[in-house]
Design a protein that fits this description.
Elements (H helix, E strand, L loop, with lengths): L17 H17 L4 E4 L5 E4 L1 H6 L15 H7 L3 H4 L3 H19 L4 H12 L1 H18 L10 E5 L7 E8 L3 H5 L3 E7 L9 H11 L14
Antiparallel strand pairs: 1-2, 1-5, 3-4, 4-5
């Protein structure tokens, strides 16, 4: 069962006491545990508040990387974990850039938040990530439009360590109830699709191995522009 992140946001009026809030989150965790698809709840900083066993199973193969584990902060995992692209396929265009766009929005709303400023500093420490954030992201937003920034409804490829799923797609479903939203929390569920297994050509398998050995940063901006 998932944990509650430190420093919770104030409880909404519909949850009038700390005891009520704890009970509500405990029941939310029980609900998530019953969902067969990966599901998580995170706060305004993308700190993970709740996650279910199916979420843990999806990321079971990633190595320990302090500060960027999927159970700790999902934004940091997507952006900085070197194994993220082994699970989140087409990571740069379909996972990183939408997350960066939503992060930029959050930073505009609350630029003094220490957690958000810490992520911004980590982006600045990676020259390629910084160039993509400052220069590449605005071009991408103009190209895809506002609709491309939303997670809810997006269909994205993943590589599940369970061979029953393997390389497949998931529908990202935003299903945040009113009480969690009032707390500043967001719930996302990755609805996995079972797909017929087809062997990949040897050249594709070799290319995949080479990609997994590359550094875990964005490549949207050519090195010559950094």
């Amino acid at each position: 069962m998932a944990h509650q992140a430190p420093g919770p946001w104030p409880a909404p009026q519909s949850v009038p006491s700390d005891i009520g809030l704890r009970a509500y989150l405990k029941d939310c965790a029980a609900l998530l545990d019953s969902v067969p698809h990966p599901s998580l709840v995170f706060d305004r900083r993308w700190d993970v508040v709740l996650a279910n066993p199916a979420f843990d199973a999806l990321f079971a193969g990633v190595r320990l990387w302090p500060g960027a584990m999927p159970r700790e902060n999902f934004l940091r995992f997507v952006l900085f974990h070197p194994d993220a692209d082994s699970v989140l396929l087409e990571r740069e265009s379909l996972w990183c850039l939408p997350m960066l766009a939503n992060f930029a929005r959050a930073l505009e709303r609350d630029g003094e938040d220490d957690g958000l400023k810490s992520v911004r500093g980590a982006i600045a420490d990676d020259p390629i990530m910084e160039a993509a954030y400052v220069h590449g992201l605005p071009h991408w937003i103009r190209a895809v439009g506002e609709g491309g920034l939303e997670h809810d409804g997006a269909v994205r490829p993943v590589q599940h360590p369970d061979p029953r799923w393997g390389r497949t797609f998931c529908r990202v479903v935003g299903d945040t109830p009113r009480t969690l939203e009032a707390l500043g929390y967001t719930r996302l569920t990755f609805v996995l699709r079972e797909t017929p297994r087809r062997p990949r050509p040897l050249a594709d398998r070799r290319a995949g191995r080479q990609l997994r050995h590359r550094a875990g940063h964005l490549t949207a901006v050519p090195l010559s522009e950094v």
